[in-house]
Amino acid sequence: MRATARESRTWWRPWGCESMHDVTAARQIARTVLQAAEQQGAGRVEKVRIVLGAMQMIDPEQLEFWLEQILRGSAGEGAEIEIRRNPLTVRCRACGWEGELEVPDDPIYHLMPWIPECPACRAEELQVLGGDELTVESIRVREAEGADEDA
Ligand SMILES: [Zn+2]
Predict the structure, then answer these.
(1) Which pLDDT does position 125 carry in this prediction?
(2) I need a labelling partner for 82 at 20 to 30 A (CA). Which of 14, 28, 34, 44 fits?
């Protein structure tokens, strides 16, 4: 199954506090996971796979940490969390250059938007092909009934 948490685009908003941003993202993911688990008539969530785009500027370790805290006491407690990082991939509308861009790891960009430019022609008209997502790629759920033994 696929479920997106695209409303998390609010990362443009100045949080002023890095971990606040991570907590917010973790909350959105937890909500998506638990809703999906419920829809599947779930027992426990065994594994959650997340795709984290570089543009989200979220530390995967922080995200995992907060997700574990938030899922505590829910059907998602103890679930294995796998985070796959997606690089920022763009296409330049001016010259057609296509490739990966390095997202600067500078706290200033938690306060202001980072405007990427084309490495070939310096144009700022870039089309984002990938790397701005924060998506729950898949969720593995254990059946509610049956053996409840940890493998
Ligand atoms: Zn260009």
Answers:
(1) 92
(2) 14
Q: How far is the CA of 119 from the centre of ligand 1 (A)?
A: 7
pLDDT value for 115: 83
Label residue 3 exposed, middle or buried (CB < 10 Å: 0-12, 13-18, 19+): middle
What confidence tens digit (pLDDT) does each residue in 99-110 have?
A: 999 888 777 777
The structural domains of the chain, with segments of one domain joined by +, span 3-88+130-141
Helices (H) and strands (E) in the chain, counts: 2, 7
pLDDT at 151 over 70: no
- Structural contact between residues 66 and 29, judged by C-beta atoms closer than 8 angstroms: no
Separation of 91 CA from ligand 1 center, angstroms? 8
Question: For residue 83, what are the β-bridge partners?
Answer: 50
pLDDT digits (tens, 9 = 90+) for 117-135: 999 999 999 999 999 899 9
Residue 15 DSSP symbol? -
**Which residues are in the CB-under-5-Å shell of ion ligand 1?**
92, 94-95, 97, 118, 120-121, 123
Which CATH entry fits the domain spanning 3-88+130-141: 3.40.50.720, 3.30.465.10, 3.30.2320.50, 3.40.1390.20?
A: 3.30.2320.50
